[in-house]
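Hello forum,

I keep getting stuck at the same step: I have a sequence, I want structure tokens, and every attempt I make locally crashes halfway through. Rather than fight my setup again tonight, could one of you with a working pipeline run this one for me? It's a single chain of 144 residues.
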Amino acid sequence: MSAQDIADRAGLSVTLVRRLLRALEQDQAANIARTTADAVLGIPFPARREPKAPGLTSSAEASRLLADLARAGWPAPALGQRLDVSPATVAEVRDKRPRLQLDLALRIRRLHRELIALDPISQGIRPADAARTRAAAARRTTHS
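Reply #2:
Ran it on my machine without issues. Output:
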């Protein structure tokens, strides 16, 4: 979180928050009123989705499964939406990320099982998007 984000959520001035952060960086004790401390410490952190299966794993299988879906015409934005990740994450796992969260690898495996036999166009994917995805997948295959 930035100093501005903290200030906005705590209802404090950004200058005060920056002063507090600077004191922490320099390992100095900051004189702070209890109401200010309560305002800063009472900020709820943004919720973070905890993986159901913690840990990292190789992305080799997930990469292969995502490449299969791309060859079938499933675009990264549609896959990302179904996996609850960004299209950039889908592309990164498919193309170059060496490891990924085990939870995501399991979701990719499950999604592949669900979608590989389905026609993307019959599932609401525009024909042009499916064709572009197939062409890009074919180019990636020939360059590999």
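The first helix runs from residue 3 to 10. If your local run keeps crashing, start a new thread with the error log.
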